[in-house]
Every structure is written in structure tokens, then in C-alpha cells.
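WARN retry 2 of 3 for item q-0093 after timeout on previous attempt; input resubmitted unchanged.
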Amino acid sequence: MHIDKKEVLRYLGYRNGVIDANINLLIDECINEAKEISDSKYIYKIFNIDKSEERVRLLESNLVFEGKDILEHLEESSMCAVMAVTLGSNMDTKIRYYEKVSMTRALILDACASVCVEWICDEVQKEIRKEAQRKTLDITYRYSPGYGDFLIDIQPKIINALDAQKNIGLTVTENNILIPRKSVSAVIGFQHKNMKAQHSGCKKCNKFIECQYRKGGNHCGD
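OK item q-0093 returned
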């Protein structure tokens, strides 16, 4: 497991500024702590898909994706992988504890956890790419509920389709929030190798207006 300190600083809003020595030490401690308490798990399934002008249906499942953005994402795909990743409940418990005794440490550990779960997603994506290559295909970037008009109300159906509660202990609230909180679900299309997969950029994200990275001149998908 790798937690890039530069990414942690980016999540914390540092931009080429001088970091206080005590904060710098605390970041190092939280990086090590995040590695120690993470109980990372993941699952993914690969589906053939059937597309129409209004929806994408994942065959042999109850999943139906709607929205022009997910349709565009899978436009050149005949298959897709649906994945879910979690750091486990220990991370949530520790962050909540620090929120009561040290908000600074809680914020830093939260940032470390966010970087950690993204790194795991990258590793799962590499594994999915290998699956695609066995079929002489390549993959798109990953696309998560909440991006563009791909609504988060699809989360319960994704969790059910992956049997994620049983397999990795991942559930979803009535408000469609994944629990444990440091968890991600995403869709990756399988497409021909000559198709270039470009990230959709900030304007496809529902957090475009308030995103701290965009305000700082960065992009969360960089």
C-alpha cells in the first residue's frame, strides 16, 4: 500500500507553502497509521452490456444505468466492469475518535484515507485492465456514481449486484452513501485498444462548483 504524501497535502489544501514542522510530522504519523488500520477489500464483476439511446443494461444482472454521461462513458464499450473498494470500518472509527480529541489529526487521517482508497482503486483498475487485455481489449477510466448525471441512487443496486455486503462488508444508507465511508464504487468500460480513453474532466463532476482542487488550479483526476 502506498500513500503519496504530496497527494495528502493536496487534499489538505497545501499548495507549495511552507509546512509547519509539527504538522509535517503529524502527516507522517497519520500516513503510517492509515496503513496500519486499513482493512482494504475490493470486488468487481464483468458484464456484457446492451445499449439503447436512453440506458445501458448490464446483462445477467438487474443493473440499468441511465444518464447521458454514463452512456457517453460506455459509448464504445461492449462490456464493462463494476467495482467496489473499501478501507473497512476501522478507518471510520478512528477518524470519528480523533474528531473528538484532535480535529487536526482527524482531518489529516481523513486525507490519508482518501489517498489510500484512490491508490487501491488504481490497483484494482490495473487488474481489470489485465482482464480486458486477455480479451484483446483496453479499458476506459473509471466512472463513479455522483459524476455528472450518473446519480448516486444507483448505489444500492451496485452493492446488490456485487453482493458487496457479504463479500467486502460494504453497505449503503437510505441516502445512498456508502458505508464504511472510505469506499468507492465505479464503472469501467471495455473497448477496442485503438480508442483513446480521456478523462471527462471537472465539468462532469457534481462537485465542480465547490471543489477545493479546482479552486486551487488542480483536478481530482490528475
